[in-house]
Amino acid sequence: MATILLVDDDHDIQRLMSFALQRAGHDVRVASDGQDGLQKMAETVPDLIIADLMMPRMNGYEFCRQVRGTAGWEQIPILVYSARFQAVDRQAALEAGADDYMPKSVTPDQIVAKINTLLAPTATALSEATGRMLGVLSLRGGVGVTTLTVNLAVALALSRKMAVGLLDLTPLAGHAALLLGLTGNKSFLDAFSPGPLGPDSLRSCLIPHATGVNLLASPLTAPPRSAPTPSGAQFAELGQMLRTMYPFTLIDLSHPLSTASEPLFPELARAIVVLGPDIGSIQSAAVTIQRLGELGLPQDGVLLVLNQIFPAPGLDPETIQKALHRPVSAVIPYAAEVLAAFNHRNPLMTYAPKSPAAAAIARLAAMVTA
Amino acid sequence: MSSLQPAYLTADFFTGSYRFSASVNVANRRLADILNDRLSDFLEVRNVYVSRINSPTKIIITYPRGSLIKEHINFVVLPTEADGLSKDHTYPSITRATSTAFITVPSFEIQGKIQIIGKVDLKALLAVGTQKFMPVLQATATTTLFPESTFGGPVILVNKAALEIFCIDQT
């Protein structure tokens, strides 16, 4: 069953199509024009959209353009159907962002058949998660894990011009939303309740950012003591679902050795262990690398990143490499702009994109996704 | 299951400068018969979407109701053949023959097939009976100044009063 948004101003066709789609087992939501459609999408993101072209207030062309221009909605299949059935109309609809086009002279059954075709890739994707998850972590606090995770996600979204998933697994009051200047009242906990985890519940919890990053945030309030804690299996399912939705998902793993999120680790394409230039980071990194191996992550999937979080020099990369017996893959230079960017609720990659730190993060993004 | 077209039929109405996509309440009648109804010079339409012919997919304005002046409609592109044939044109197939036709109206060239019964008589074809609009089957209309823009369909109803030239492939 898919959730389908039907955008059409004709009440007769709304009834006819709703009946046909519901009979085919789909959940149908109806909007009366493009503006209404966008509002409905803000409430519940559908699996597929059927849109008329000729509608008051906002026509179908503009509606398609708005959907395609909204972060997180780029991949939703759009089927345009219209009484305007000329080749130029079809071409204009496809250029506006529609995936397919049908004239209104067809029967609802033909439209249902087309919908099943358009939904098929999604169904395949759900069974074959092809996206890659990149985890960022450190057992030593204050080394900029969240800042690096957020900026890596932004760098990826901007450089590849695609939607990127971002999961802030901090148990309470994580800073990813703050760093992106996003507000929202939903977190990863909401994706698990009240019903089972599903594409709809997950999408409704994602907060889109203008760069193309889609954040599943950390909760801002502690759940009641009586509330069930998400299980490891649920986190694994969450990871699987994010991999079906985005080519890349960045995860701020926060406290990796103390949460139920450990089932995610074997699924990581890369684990980026962040260190500061201090001896405490070396000890934390050594323990982290050992634990990641125990959790099933291949050792060649672990990257060390030295984040120069202090203006004064600390341990140099060579010393760290010698102590950990593995190379430091990237060094993020100290940048005063990081603090300013945070206070402006703007990620460094867009606040100071030409800073040396932003350049180093962009290179790291290219490296970890190569 | 029925098609998505209820009592209202949506069609494309073309003048020399505009494309009007609009719905007509056809109820139990055919659009061809409504257009050919000499008791009314106007055609009541609803949900009117207006485009200029130099940018035929760009909707410049929309209104819920309107009235088209029949004599200024050059041609109408219809989604199904049945809607474009008046009762007078639904001949038994045994007597039906077709001929390729080339027609120009202001700003457009139209090519397609016309139905002919018996001996070809151009004068009779253009003047006969009370039919203001002539059906051209499997037709394509090309915008003269923008030949990349074409509009086709199973039937185009051409206003005989707008014709500039009418050619057929029979001697």
Quick rundown:
The complex is a heterodimer of chains A (370) and B (171). With 370 residues, chain A is an alpha/beta fold.
Structure description:
- The complex is a heterodimer of chains A (370) and B (171).
- Chain A is α/β, with parallel strands linked by helices.
- Chain A contains 15 helices and 13 strands.
- In chain A, helix 2 (34-43) runs parallel beside helix 3, helix 5 packs across helix 10 (232-245) and helix 6 (145-160) packs across helix 15 (356-369).
- The two termini of chain A are 36 Å apart.
- The model of chain A is unreliable at 121-128 (pLDDT under 50).
- By secondary structure, chain B is mostly beta strands.
- Chain B has three helices and ten strands.
- Chain B has helices at residues 31-35, 81-84, 122-127, and strands spanning 8-14, 18-25, 42-52, 61-69, 75-78, 97-105, 108-116, 133-143, 150-159, 165-168.
- A ten-stranded antiparallel β-sheet of chain B has the order 4-3-2-1-5-9-8-7-6-10.
- In chain B, a hairpin with a 2-residue loop joins strand 6 (97-105) and strand 7.
- The A-B interface holds A 9, 12-13, 16-17, 20, 54, 56, 59, 61, 81, 83-89, 91-92, 103-109, 111 and B 1-6, 10-12, 21, 23, 47, 49, 56-59, 62, 64, 77, 79-80, 149-153.
